[in-house]
Amino acid sequence: MTTTYDPENPLYLDEADVRGELTRVYDLCNGCRQCVDLCTSFPTLFEMIERRDGQDAGLMTPFEQDQVVDECFQCKLCSLDCPYTPELHERNLDFPRLMLRAGAMQWANGITPSRVRLTTWIIGHTDLLGKLAVSTGPVANRMIGVEPGSVVRKFVEKATGVSSVRLLPPFARERFSTWFDKRPTIRLTRRQAKVTVVPTCVVEYQATGVGKDLVKVYEHNGIECATTDAGCCGAPLLHSGNVEDFTKIAERNIRTLAAEIRSGTDLVVPQPTCSYILKNDYLTYVGGPDAELVAGHTFDASEYLMNIHMGADTSLETHFAGETVEEITYHAPCHLRAQNIGLASRDLMKLTGAKVEIVQQCSGNDAMWGFRSANTDIAIPIAEELGRQITEAGGDAVAGDCHLANTAIVEQTGREARHPLQIIARAYGLPEE
């Protein structure tokens, strides 16, 4: 049994070693039970152990161990308050990173079912999927946009493993980078900083309006914007256990983004899962000076603006002449909270004079986990609870940083959920594309 989160360790993918480590950690978690309400992985684990003589985690079968792993959707929240994390305790327990190790072991040793591998190949190669979907225009959106549960969606589920009952985010007619390249050059009257917008796949192919409003808000505040051809961060592959393909994507992106930084720019990422990957997982799975450079210069979109607002020699425009909202219900995504950078989006929206109520319920999506048909029975109740809390909170508008979580909000409530920078853009009076 080896306690390691280093993918270069020769025992990282060894099945017997991983299962020994799972036993150690499962036993610790059973004795603590602090995370019982966070997701289904922990209740499933505790129920299985309770069925064993002496509540011995070592008597769990490999199938039972893997069920706990498969139910983890990498929200990261259990690591925030865990008393045994490597930074706090010699027991060196990082549950999300152990689940990643176990998933990688399953993938490398042929334990991952072929059906899951197929779905991962389809939805994990997001740049290829995005390019095809945008180029085919309305055809792709007709396929994914038809009524959940319909015959067409059931056919798509059989072919791809993508759930037939989930609302799927549509694709844009034009890529964000295409819009950015075609727009006229903006002359800034007060240049405060320079950033490279890293749209990754979600903003590049789907939530392009988020990227457009980000650029407008930044330029309104004297922040020069560029963009990059770095693609998907690789989260769907990493969280599915395909470490080899994830590492290739990470290495390519690190080279591209490190060169951007050396040209004199910071990196701004509008989606929290992607910014988490750049700040944390690139260090773990690739490492080296360039990965450290990328991690040290990567910022969430709202985080960067609040840093400008709080800077000694910089400031944000706080005159809002456009459409403001009195009460905003704000969903704080798990991967944003896991970064321990505070709730910058909340603070940003408060500058408009809005009262902001926070909802911290997980959406259960995690890149693509919640859209897999195999996870529907677990994912839907999580999304329903998010919808219930959003509805209960009310508010004149709903905001959230994660586009996939916002899609779950629309699915469960019928209410539009916008990125906080879109709220800010309208408050400034900047036009929507």
Structural class: alpha/beta
CATH secondary-structure class of the largest domain: Alpha Beta
Helix fraction bin = 40-55%
What do we call the CATH topology of the largest domain?
Rossmann fold
Note poorly predicted spans.
none
What's the pLDDT, averaged over the residues? 93
Task: Provide the fold topology.
Elements lengths: L14 H18 L8 H10 L11 H10 L23 H14 L5 H11 L1 H11 L1 H8 L5 H10 L15 H7 L10 E5 L2 H7 L1 H13 L2 E5 L7 H4 L4 H20 L3 E4 L2 H14 L3 H8 L1 E3 H10 L16 E5 L2 H4 L6 H7 L4 E5 L16 H18 L3 E4 L2 H11 L3 E2 L1 H9 L5
Helix pairs in contact: 1-4, 2-3, 6-7, 6-10, 10-11, 11-21, 13-15, 14-15, 16-18, 18-21, 19-20
Question: How would you describe this protein?
Answer:
The chain is α/β, with parallel strands linked by helices and 433 residues long. It has four domains: 15-108; 114-160, no CATH class; 176-310, Rossmann fold (3-Layer(aba) Sandwich), CATH 3.40.50; 327-428, Rossmann fold, CATH 3.40.50. It contains 21 helices and eight strands. The chain has helices at residues 15-32, 41-50, 62-71, 95-108, 114-124, 126-136, 138-145, 151-160, 176-182, 200-206, 208-220, 235-238, 243-262, 272-285, 289-296, 301-310, 334-337, 344-350, 376-393, 403-413, 420-428, and strands spanning 193-197, 223-227, 266-269, 298-300, 327-331, 355-359, 397-400, 417-418. Helix 20 links the parallel strand 7 and strand 8 (417-418). The longest helix has 20 residues, at 243-262. The protein is globular.
